[in-house]
Amino acid sequence: MLEIYNSLKRQKEVFEPLKKGQVRMYVCGPTVYDEPHIGHLRSVYVFEVMRNYLAKSSHKYEVTFVRNVTDIDDKIIEKARSSNGDLSLETKNVSTRFYSLYHENLIKFGIRDPDHEPWATKHIPDMIKFISGLIDRNIAYLSDGDVYYDVKKFPGYGKLSHQDTDAILKNVRIEKNEKKRNPLDFALWKKSKEGEPFWESPWSKGRPGWHIECSAMSQKYLGDVFDIHGGGLDLIFPHHENEIAQFEGLTGTNPVSYWVHHGLITVNGQKMSKSLKNFITLKTLEDKNPHAIEDLKMLFLLTHYSMPLDYSEEKMQMARAIRERFLNFFDKASQLTSKTKTELVSFGSDIERAMDNDFNTPQVLAVFHNMIDLAYARLIQHKQADLFLDTARKIRLFFEKVLCLDMDPAKLRVVDKELKQEIEEGIYQRDEAKRNKNFKLADKIRQKLLAKGILLTDLPGGKTEWRKL
Fold this sequence. Notes:
The protein is an alpha/beta fold. Helix content is 47%, strand content 15%. It has three domains: 3-271, HUPs (Rossmann fold, 3-Layer(aba) Sandwich); 313-412, Four Helix Bundle (Hemerythrin (Met), subunit A), CATH 1.20.120.640; 415-468, no CATH class. The chain has helices spanning 38-56, 74-81, 87-108, 124-136, 165-171, 210-222, 236-251, 282-288, 292-301, 313-334, 345-356, 361-382, 385-401, 417-435, 439-450, and strands at 3-6, 11-14, 22-27, 62-67, 140-143, 146-149, 186-191, 206-208, 226-232, 256-262, 265-267, 270-271, 309-311, 454-458, 464-468. Strand 9, helix 7 (236-251) and strand 10 (256-262) form a beta-alpha-beta unit. Helix 9 packs across helix 10 and helix 11 packs antiparallel against helix 12.
């Protein structure tokens, strides 16, 4: 029985989809004005794992997954200004360029495309229709070409962030704006300034506010109500709070059954963000570590998705060591043979129980470690290769099918060009020494490579295999 923590209710709830056997899921995607960083990758990875588990576990839901792209925004326009060209054209260039970088990262990370990936600028008519509906219901008002949502007309404002309007005004910095009736009112439509990109509307030549984008696009692809809305904890207020206000203002109903939020990545205790210039890109990690993608995924899995993750090189090294323990296990399994298959029913249910507990991947990894310990013990004590092989099959399949993590043991033999040449020369020289019965030299060569983290193993038939420790 799957339980999901619902930010709206502040508790775990049994997951019951609106339509039996189907899950409709919307996740806030990137605002494409700068390089993607590992905080973005954690977000897409968290929801990819959820999507996979919902579809590929015994639940077997038919999942419709939507992730948007914000390609018009104040930050994008500001970035475009630095080019000193036509602002409308440069805004498109900025969003296209940084979306390409984002998408390249997703491909490297093994993230599948969503079922729908709506871009904000391609859905302006849907947003205008949505805003018009709010004006017709007297929940939004026009002010000098801008359109604002009248927060006082929505008594439930603050229910997602669990704060009343007085607390919001006290705790949140809100810029003065004489066009607003109330400081908390937020823009649905913004009249464009000179040179800025604009679209025609009944109110002005302008562009949509950020919050209306997700409301209009999720409604278009998933309807007035859907199952899961996801994003980072930083989106609870004001973005998702405003989405609820917009939807309920238009339809009278909360659009989402389960609001799901992931923790943020910090560096030295500070939120990783573009504005603070403390973000870490995948390229930076790959330049230092050829296995950065796999190590980073393991790092993500070691912390529950809802919790903050403080990034450090020490934690990456720990993730690498854990991942290599699994690879060594799979490598050992590749050397065994068995004619029988043993089903580990209890462990299979333990894995599912862990994931049903709000997608608890650290608990899943703990189950995997227990499975491996038992498999090694049975192999050593009772020579039960069938149990070992079945354990390896189950764990590796779950890694690849649900956790989206490549666990090919051949990765134990991926090293840089210089070390690979040294290994090959060492194996050749050692084979020559053994043929000449110079076992002291052969052992010396083996120890030299072992000091560099390379283990040589003599296989039947005279072949020598190597792997990283």
